[in-house]
UniProtKB/TrEMBL annotation:
Name this polypeptide is given: GNAT family N-acetyltransferase
Molecular function per GO: acyltransferase activity, transferring groups other than amino-acyl groups
Keyword field contains Acyltransferase: no
Record domain N-acetyltransferase: where: 5-150
Organism encoding this protein: Fictibacillus arsenicus
Length: 150
């Protein structure tokens, strides 16, 4: 049977699945345990994140396999389920953010996360800065994507 990935606006009924996937994906990517409790992470997702950002999730048979949070100028979160990476889910979520953007997007990724850097670079992002202004206090890279005018 052919399974399709469906991208929908985030709904709170998917909160626990989404947060579990997000935390596991992030841990695998950077090797740091999440600083916040599971409950506060759910609260953040349900009550804070969507006030400033569009939050979309990718579903595969009602299972949450990805999340993206973005506005017209930046992507603040993008995580894909560890078992579903490399299947085009991240690219589909990124495409949605690009379509809704002002023609320019920025995002940060951890320097330690080489897989994410390759992914963003393959999808048209270029490095424009470096820093470590994050909760984890890890070195990070600032990327920028600019819509090409054809």
């Amino acid at each position: 049977m052919d399974h399709e990935i469906i991208i929908i606006p985030y709904e709170s009924k998917y909160a626990e699945q989404t947060v579990k996937m997000w935390r596991e994906s992030k841990y695998k990517a950077i090797g740091h345990k999440e600083a916040h409790s599971f409950e506060s992470h759910v609260y953040f997702l349900n009550h804070i994140l969507h006030k400033e950002y569009q939050v979309d999730i990718a579903l595969w048979d009602e299972n949450v396999v990805g999340i993206i949070a973005y506005n017209e100028s930046e992507i603040i979160q993008l995580y894909i389920h560890n078992d579903y990476q490399g299947k085009g889910i991240g690219k589909s979520l990124l495409r949605k953010a690009k379509e809704q953007s002002s023609g320019r997007l920025t995002l940060y990724t951890f320097e330690i996360n080489k897989k994410a850097q390759r992914f963003y670079e393959m999808n048209g992002f270029k490095i424009i800065g470096r820093g470590h202004e994050n909760e984890e206090n890890l070195p990070d890279i600032l990327y920028e994507w600019i819509k090409s005018v054809d």
